[in-house]
Amino acid sequence: MEFYTNALSHVLSFGPLTAMIGATLLGVFIGALPGLNPVMAIALLLPLTYSMDPLVALAMVAGIYNGSMYGGAIPAILLRIPGTPASIATTFDGFPMADRGEASKALKIACWSSAIGGIASAIALMTMGPMLARVTLFFGPAEYFWIAIFGMASVAVMVGSDPVKGIMAAVLGLLIGTIGIDNLSGQARFTFGQTWLLGGLDLIVVLVGLYALPPVLQLAEKCDLKGLSAAQLKLADVPFKKGEIRGLIPTWLRASGIGIGVGILPGAGGNIAAFLSYNAAKNASDDPSSFGKGNPQGVAAAECGNNADNAASMIPALALGIPGNVVAALVLSALTIHGLQPGPQLFHQNPTLVGGFMMEMLITSVLIFALGGAVATRVFAQFQRLPGVLLVPTILILMCVGVYVINGRAIDLWVMLAAGFAGYFLEKVNFPLAPVILGMILGPMAEQSVRRALLISRGDMTELVTRPISAVLAAVTVLVIVWPLVKMVRRRRKPAEQ
Amino acid sequence: MEKRQDIVLGLIFVGIGIFAAWMATSYKGASGTYPMVLGLVLTLLGATVSIKALRQPTDQPRALVNAPAKLGTAALVSAIYVALVIPLGFYTASFLLVLAMPLALGFRRLVYALTVAAVFMSLIYLVFSVLLEKPLPRELILSLNAVGG
């Protein structure tokens, strides 16, 4: 408890508090603009946080993450355009509600559900994170090697439609992570005589390119010259019926549980949490046929589920140093930017920071109640009147300024562009990008851990699988990789046999 | 379409893998083993993707680019912008980009674009140069003025 009371006094100081309020508003705004997403926004933000206090930087990440997950519901309800992938399920009942003149009510439900899901998730993070960190004190280099491989493998096989492409993406990330001077031997690898490559490719530069440029190029392709008209964004107030809000409580509880469970699993994101919560609400309903036709329970389940995924996804990231999704990977990047090593030692060496970040995830969820209300929603909806073609250059400028200020080098801008164009085409051929980033983050940890383990065992490879914890982790990792491949082969054989 | 794209994708990764493994042979000791293993695994996975695609009985259509002309324009203007950031200066190049990109994509409301450019660039200046004091590429126009003065 002292862990959190100490952290709270820091979090409630001027800097982190204003950062949380500003970033939550910014997050709602980003989520409300189709084409922009939280990953892109946080990737753009990270380079700017170099000179900031880590708690302020993390407050901004927390605010944008929680705020944008709610913001995505605004166009999903008003226009049936999901602002973020996690708000696809919100369109099912949100838009039919808006269609029959209940847009304001649907937005209120989305706002409250997002806040409740976020609060439940933050409480899960605050209770389970420190417990998991305590377990990891028994880990040695061999265990860390397997944890890194497990994290990458599970994300690689779960995201995208083809596990082979997922694993290939992770290996590509690992390979990119080897560029530069090898810390253990001093050998320069894949530098081609270029001094700017000696320090390796900057993670943030590649990340901004991979995640921010493809949506910008897609916006350019869509070529929206008009934006929305004022008439399309008109909202009328519809009062709640008696007992209607109380009826949402079981849905909120169920969706919070599902979202937290999905968040802890590596590779599964807010969109999966929203779909599962939506389906669970539909199955539990007395009138499942009303779902998809404007049932408020559908909006509540989807929005509560996708926000309940947020803080829970930070549990393995903060406790083990293993990011379960790209936003968690970005949080780890934010920590490394400030010279902090993610993992169990973080809880012992920087309790104020870890506890503070957890509190920030909680406070920004509460802020959605206050900042995401009907008035704010009306204001944010107005930004959709901006023509999409004007967003293309403005985002590109933000990307460039963010990347340039990291090292003050023009070459980084070209690396960012190259990564972005590669990312655009790779996404088109169903090649998942998240494992590339995870590979870049976890690669150095995996390599150093395996080499340390082999140094300790004097080159005995069996050391990697003979300790009880490492043996279990190795078995689980193999299972995680092999099982989807077996399933894929079986699926292929079935139609052939038929 | 999908089949051909996957075959090419697999072959590209076979190439990257072989190249990485070959490069790694020149690195001393354990520092070469790890990238060599990764290179070989990548080669294997790339070959698997290609072979899988080759054996696929059907070929689904999958567009690599939805609007080639718009994408090409955006890519070209982005590249020109990045090339001009250092010689022209950050603010000059960025202001030109906010005007040029929408115009190149077919937006014809120049006053609207100018207003957005002015408001956005003022915000960027306030945040990055005044508030955060980040050093950005120097403006050519200021250097010319200094020389002229």
From TrEMBL, chain A:
Residues of the DUF112 domain: 17-438
Alphabetized Pfam families for the sequence: TctA
Residues passing through the membrane, by range: 12-33, 109-132, 144-160, 167-184, 196-217, 317-337, 357-376, 388-407, 464-486
InterPro entries: DUF112_TM
Top-rank taxon: Bacteria
Keyword Phosphoprotein in record: no
The entry's keywords: Membrane, Transmembrane, Transmembrane helix
PANTHER family: TRICARBOXYLIC TRANSPORT PROTEIN (PTHR35342:SF5)
Record's protein name: C4-dicarboxylate ABC transporter permease
Organism: Pseudosulfitobacter pseudonitzschiae
UniProtKB/TrEMBL annotation, chain B:
Domain DUF1468: 8-137
Record has Transmembrane as a keyword: yes
Pfam families according to UniProt: TctB
Entry keywords, A to Z: Membrane, Transmembrane, Transmembrane helix
Residue spans crossing the bilayer: 7-27, 33-54, 75-104, 110-132
Protein name, entry field: DUF1468 domain-containing protein
Species lineage: Bacteria, Pseudomonadati, Pseudomonadota, Alphaproteobacteria, Rhodobacterales
